[in-house]
Amino acid sequence: MTGYLVLDDGEVFKGEFLGETHWECVGEVVFNTSLVGYQEIVTDPSYYRQIIVMTAPEQGNYGTLPAERESKRVWAQGFVCLEFNDVHKSRHRRSLESELFEFKSPILNGVDTRSLTLHLRSRGTPWGTIVCTQSVEEAKIIGRERIRQAKEAVGSDWVNEVSQEKTTLHQGSKQKGRIALIDYGFKKSILDQLLLRVKEVAVFNSRATAKEILDWNPDGLFLSNGPGDPAAVEHAPEIVKQLLGTKPMFGICMGHQILSLALGGRTYKLKFGHRGSNHPVKNFATGEIYMTAQNHGYAVDPDLPTGVQLSQINLYDKTIEGIECKAKKAWSVQYHPEAGPGPHDSRVLFDHFVHEVVL
Amino acid sequence: MPKRTDIKKIMLLGSGPIVIGQACEFDYSGTQACKALREEGYEVILVNSNPATIMTDPESANRVYIEPLELPYLRSIIEKERPQALIPTLGGQTALNAAMKLHAEGVLKQFNVELLGASVEAINKAEDRELFKKEMAKIGAQVPLSFTVHSMKEGWEAVKKIGYPVILRPSFTLGGSGGGIAKTPEEFEKILEFGLSESPTTEVLLEQSVLGWKEFELEVMRDHKGTFVVICSIENLDPMGVHTGDSITVAPIMTLTDQEYQAMRDEACRVIETIGVATGGANIQFAVNPANGERIVIEMNPRVSRSSALASKATGFPIAKIAAKLAVGYELEEILNDITKTTPSCFEPSIDYVVTKIPRFDFEKFPGSKDFLTTQMKSVGEVMGIGRTFKESLLKAVASLEKGTGGFDPVPWDEEKLVTPNSRRLFYVAQAFREGLTVDQIFEKTAITPWFLEKIQELVLAEKSISLGDLESADSLLNLKRLGMTDAFIAAQLKVAESTVTQARKKHSINPGYWSVDTCAGEFESNTPYYYSSYWAPAKKPLGLESAVVVLGSGPNRIGQAIEFDYACVQAIRSIRSLGRTSVMINSNPETVSTDYDTSDLLFFEPLTAEHVIEVLRFVEPKGVCVQFGGQTPIHLAPKISKAGFQILGSSLESISQAEDRKLFSQICRSLGLALPKHETASTAQEAIKAAERVGFPVICRPSFVLGGRKMEIIEEPKALQNYLSTVGDLMAADSPLLIDEFLDHALELDVDVVSDGQTVLIGGVVEHIEAAGTHSGDSMGVLPPQRVGQPLIDRIEDLSRKLCHMMKVVGHLNLQLAVKNDVIYVLEANPRSSRSVPFVSKATGIPLVRLATQAMLGEPIHITRYWKEMDSICVKGVVFPFKKFQEADALLGPEMRSTGETMGRSHGVGGLTPDYAEALEKAFLSAGVRLPSEGTVFLSIRDRDKEEIPELAKILSNLGFDIIATPGTAKFLEGIGVKVRAVNKVQQGSPHCVDAIKSGMVSLVINTVSGAKAVADSFSIRRSCVDKNIPCITEMSVVEHVVRVLQSRHNHPRYQIRTSPL
């Protein structure tokens, strides 16, 4: 079936539609340059309300496994690629198609993804929708209407929409260390990396109060990744401000942005964001350069408040990749040291943090 | 840290002649490195023995030494130049081994030369199997169960523990030479014996077989600060058991999950760290068990490699250049990415296309050799196809092989050919689907990962569905083109002319678009004009580059068309640029300098088929096209290019066809009064027999339109002709008749390279062959200036060359092959293009032939500023053969070319000395791996017609102190004339016989001339055992004379003065 990716700027990209035509598929259209890791990407809550365009042409090759998900579900609104593949039964894995379809995410296959990517690069991050119609003209009309409606309906605090409601407790493999993980849309890899290093981790809702969290008596506080605009996340900066200085704190991605806001910094929207597995980041403290996993549309303004230092930088575009506030024992990074998908170079940051926590 | 300032002068070693396992990729890496180092202000001293390289051009380095990569020569160069550092990691295994020798002999220490890029310790850890195993254990990486053995006895003990099949890998050899897989004790004995003799350290690694496991490679880089990046991940379509150089490989990796891939990446990082490659590139190979994901490290090369050249071309990341910069102290962070020009080099390229490499084989050149693939590399070249999908890239690579329709042409079904890896297995996989086999069945038989099989199946299904209706439907036709199918292949399925499909395509406006290779999958802007075509790309407006000049490359290396032509292409591109024109390169060979993104203004990485080339021309809209530099490939394309409306620059299409067409060419020769060997053509076997009788035996036969003398044979009598005809039937047709020429026995052959602007004709040089007529010119050694031909004859040759040039209206290159017999000059062949000998001649004489030819083709007149004979040196071309890799092949030379590469031995007239022919000969031999002994035993086995030359030869050898052994007949004859000789049995007379003597190592030189099919067959084992044992075996009396000259010269000057180039 022919399908179209309609963008709110009027551009239309044609492809082969896979899925049910009534599935809703509207969101920001973003591209990711990772060569592997499609399952981790589509199940990362940070892709909430986004349609993902993979620049690597062959997708689905090695199937999926529920155990390799980054959360309980697929978050991507839709999946756009050039060549969609089934997985051979000898791999004993589930197809990417089944994974996406279980959560009603359609696929637009056979798309000239390079033209699309170059468009997204020059245009920024438009909204889009995948529709099935008889003609391009019809697609444009229906698509625009759908986008308009969706934009009207959508709230701005996306973090609140993906954050788990109830607090959950997870047992780690070590004798020491209790970490409170504040869930802005956390990836399972973050939890896994923490559990490898500490005794237990409690996951709190993004709006859990400082008191609720501190009552659990954590040794360290961890701010997770999450979707959307950090400036639109309600309560979180205030809560983090209250928590600052009580315990060592570490933030990733959205967590990094919330920490910056709590410290008095600002955030801004990048033109088309960073999504991929190959961005070089320099850690000033050690001089090391990590290949990093990236997934964010916003960044922290380089005009940092006093008492906050720039600790890591993106060597591609010099955007801020890490900050620290020594006085409050708080650190954060914009990228994803937990990887999943992506290089493991910076997992060492978990060691540094846990070292501070269980000192 | 910025670059080091304590170092001023750096020495670089090249990789020597082209051999299987070590080809143009090291010219590519060396040239890149030279350029990078010179840009940084270092003085670069380059040593390489291969004249057919860009790196040995005078402008590549501050000083270029075309000298053997051997200890005494390297020592004397170091002594003279006093470099502070040596980079051993850019010239393949040859350079690495040479550097290790310089270290072992204390030369580096004596002259205080620092190794950059990789330390002696790191090289040892990577190369020595036992040390490597220990290092891997340290970091918890698994390696196959293995034992290093130094004798047959140790071998038998080890194999008891490992079991069969077992892999044998000799240490320190090129391309896995001497290795293999043994499934039985018999095979084990044979391979181990050979492997032990092959290894310079008499060391062979016996290893648990991981046959059928998936094979992966990571191309990685690291700087001195420890920043580590994976430049390219590669997955082999062929599972373990086939040498990676012989495997079809795909980038990026297609079938690993993120967890699997990252674990491999982590391990690669630990490997390079523990081995201790402080700076530079490395290649790490892994095998993964498809059943359970178990992963082992196969090997690590602490240097740039064939794979790193491929990775550079596949991603746009110039590994060799960056490696050179890292070696002198830079960090990855400090080096700008050339492609984006805004981001640093410390990143991992992301690509949004797929790259497939397919090796090219030449088994048919080695009659008797079996076409099957093992852990010993046998391919002679490779092609790379870039497409947006795996299918498109695979079929573009298939088209790049320049065979058939450029698609999965059907092959006669043979299940054995599916099961046993061989040069055409990909085609048998496709055929298997046509025969109805399933993915599972083929997986069972081949262990090729099902994902790849499914893709091939999809292509075969698409092929089956092709109908005439597809030509009417734009969508259907576009879908076929998006799969990578050529017009010719689609036409073949429909049984229509290729032009019918092309026209249908044009009617529907289906044209490929061009994307550029940008290292970042479109994330950042880049303006690098390195393009590939895809039907997944929107067609763009033509560039309309009216001043652009397109150079067609030579495609994959093959015997007869290799680096010499890439040399010409690169020289041509550089001349075009220097004339202020826009240069455009089209080529499909990833190993080359011509496909470096900054060689030309625009690079199109495309198959050299008429379809792909014409599409590029339509996109570029250039002024014209150069077809004279890439060998026969562009010459074949010329008519179609011209027909499509593009201008062929230089000699017109008519003058090109005059040279190609025997009839037209002989008319020209006759009108000039030039002698030609008697010749006939025949389209049928009957015609051939009659024609041969008219010419008179012996005759020399060959099919038309072949390169490197394929299927060219000297036929001595009618019966042999019958046999021959039965093997060339399919190559003979009315439009490509069989050529039957008089064979000029014992004639002296010469090569002449000429350049003309249409008025002025410049003689580049006359190369005198050392072998007599009958040995292919590409396989003959040659000398410049001629040593046996006097000036009057040279004058006549030059005169004749000029006349031919004028008559044929040559603009650009002309190469002539001449023979002289009884003072008559015969014209054997004229090639209206650059030739194999052009780089050698240019290097020897200092006359930039290609540059002059390019200028002439662009309308600039040629000014002759020097005469070629003014050269102040004697230069000998040496030749390298791959017989070792083809166990069943005979090392006897003949009219069919089989050499893979060449060397240059040069003797300078320095310090008042005149150039010494013997010195030049010795260097040419040595660089080609022929180590002539100074003492020991010579075995003589000589055919009757050469017997009259024996007495003198035997006396000389005897006087030089050699012991002589000979077969009974020869021995008796020698005794009769008073030469001390020992008789040894012929093989047929039973052991102990001459081959036993050779194998025992007691013989240091063999002279074996032979003719007639039976005698050739009987003496096969003599030559074969010499190849296996690395004993020089001379099969031509004309060469024997030259060997004797070397031996005498050495005898007379016991402390041989090594002369290197003047400063």
Q: What labels would you give this structure?
A:
heterodimer; A: 359 residues; alpha/beta; Glucose Oxidase, domain 1; Rossmann fold; 2 domains; 10-stranded mixed beta sheet; 7-stranded mixed β-barrel; 19 strands; 24% helix; globular; B: 1063 residues; 7-stranded antiparallel beta sheet; 36 helices
Overview of this structure, please?
The complex is a heterodimer of chains A (359) and B (1063). The longest helix of chain A is centred in the middle third of the chain and has 18 residues, at 136-153. In chain A, helix 8 links the parallel strand 13 (220-223) and strand 14. Helices cover 24% and strands 30% of the residues of chain A. Chain A has helices at residues 38-42, 96-102, 113-123, 136-153, 158-162, 188-195, 210-215, 236-243, 254-262, 348-357, and strands at 2-7, 12-18, 26-32, 50-54, 58-59, 78-80, 83-84, 107-109, 127-131, 168-171, 178-183, 200-205, 220-223, 249-252, 267-283, 289-300, 309-314, 320-325, 330-333. With 359 residues, chain A is an alpha/beta fold. Chain A starts with a strand and ends with a helix. Chain B is an alpha/beta fold and 1063 residues long. The radius of gyration of chain B is 28 Å and the shape is globular. In chain B, helix 30 crosses helix 36 (1037-1052). Chain B is 36% helix and 19% strand. The mean pLDDT of chain B is 93. In chain B, strand 35 (963-966), helix 32 and strand 36 form a beta-alpha-beta unit.
